[in-house]
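From the shared-data thread, chain only:
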Amino acid sequence: ATKLLWMRQHEPQPYGRLAKILLPKDYVRYRMTGQFAMDAADASGTLLYDVAHRHWSEDICHALDLPMTLLPDSCESTDVVGHVTAEAAALLGVAEGTPVVAGAGDQAAGAVGLGVVDPGLISAVFGTSGVVLAPTAEPLRDPAGRLHTFCHALGDRWFTMGVTQAAGGSLQWYRHRFGQAEESVAQASGTDVYDLLLAEAAKVAPGAEGLLYLPYLLGERTPHLNPDARGAFVGLDWRHDKSHMVRAILEGVAFSLRDVWGLLADLGTPLNQVRVSGGGAQGRLWMEIFSSVLNRSVETMGGAQGPAYGAAMLAAHGVGMLDLHQLAGSGWIAPGTLVSSPVGWPATYAGLYSVFRQSYPALAGVYKHLAEWKARRD
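Structure, as tokens:
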């Protein structure tokens, strides 16, 4: 919605030529089938959708003076919304008439790929951003707007999620800015550079000898909803070195995702079993830290479970090959690896987390003044 309003104000001529609004995957599907459609899961993020009732919102479109004719048909992620045309078949080498299922966005499809469709199962994603996602049987809304409520990829499910903007992105930032030595060793030895960084962090005891990291490199969504928030190392002293900084990054990201966990708990969301995926989930030390911060075991899932795999499962459901309501024993979800917290770590992190919670409020005014200063300089 905001992009459309910007376009109407700043690019009125292209705006006047609009016929339909599609997200990228929906445009690809349109080229494959000739049909305009958007699934409820992705439509939930447009600000034009009635998430509770799973249809486009006439009230919002009227308030924004956006014609409903711009919107494609609303569908569910498992619906067959078209068939491969002769033109697309010739281009792609796919049989003409092949059914095409709507699909979903990355988080909804990724949750399906993990088997996280029923309340009580939780998806935690350690990608560039970090996500904690909880399926629900009805839409749950955070009155403060810190969590996002979307339609899930199943027609009788929703999910509530919170996002840390720079989760794996924080470690990636450190690697590119300060990890040149590790990069050289990794290239010479054929080792993964992230394995080397985590090995350095493993030399340091929990708490990084009093060093905290706030992972707000890109502003933050949950729980602070503040585009001016910025990353910070708090407590740096003379004895800290690179290993302390990497350890603090791992811990700070885990604390930030613990913030999301707490908000979900406050809404009364059942939080029974955690399945973790993404590149960061492959680092055992990081998962031990995360397990300790949550004070519960987590199940790390292999590389096969992800959004692309979830999209394949949605297609299988759509054509009758799979029932996503009966995943147990279906063989579609491979078991993960259970990771538990090392002895003593949960107590250490419980104390440090309370300090982490104090850090953002203490710096909020600084962030605001820095943003104002930068605006004047620009």
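The first helix runs from residue 2 to 10.
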